[in-house]
Amino acid sequence: MRTPASLVIVRETKPATEWLLGRPVQKVSPKFAHSVMQGALCARLRPWARGRGRMGPEWRFWLQPPGEESRYLVPDIAYISYARLARESRAEAEEPHVAPDAVFEVLSPGDRPALLAHKIDVHLRAGTTLVVVVDPAGRSLRAIDRDGERILSAGDTFEHDALPEYRLDLAEFFAELDA
Q1: Looking only at Cα atoms, what is the longest distance across the chain?
Q2: What are phi and psi of 116, to 5 degrees?
Q3: pLDDT tens for residues 104-163?
Q4: What are phi and psi of 62, to 5 degrees?
């Protein structure tokens, strides 16, 4: 049970502020390639997620790795199955206190590697099964889970057990940057 003393409260900002490495950090304001990749992912994930769970961009999740304070992170895109957050739990879905099944982070030129590594670590320790890092400049995707990481690029197809039956053709996906 979380007590008010175990919550880290950060004021609302645009873009959102997250609690990283023990301090508030405002998210990087996205650039065009980031926006294209985030939009393309949403367009491909939403039809797959129907009937399976909820997905959305810039969705705030309260996370609490074991033995640590609860803080929120705002992934670029998050998916949580109805098995982990019931369809009927509409109010709880606004700011879930359970880790998403999968998160997607799209790199921007201003992203700091240490902060990204911390976000990945917090997500995995809080119960997220899969963290996907999309690199528009390198046209690659890193799929990170508790067993390690895989790096995929154009010509590969992304799939993972955290997203059953979901397949993403990376050549087609990264071609969105050329449209």
Answers
A1: 49
A2: -65, -45
A3: 999 988 788 998 999 999 999 999 999 999 999 999 999 999 999 999 999 999 999 999
A4: -85, 120
Q: How many domains does the chain have?
A: 1
Who's near 55: CB < 8 A, 6+ residues apart?
A: 42, 45, 46, 49, 77, 78, 79, 80
Q: Hey, what amino acid is at 45?
A: L
Reduced DSSP (H G I as helix, E B as strand, rest coil) percent helix, strand, coil of the chain, to 5: 25, 30, 45
Q: What is the CATH classification number for the domain harbouring 95? A: 3.90.1570.10
Q: What is the dihedral of CA 84, 116, 140, 28, to 10 degrees?
A: 100
The predicted model scores a pTM of: 0.86
Structural domain boundaries, residue 92: 4-178
Neighbours of 109 (CB within 10 A): 11
Point out which residues pair with 24 in neighbouring strands.
19
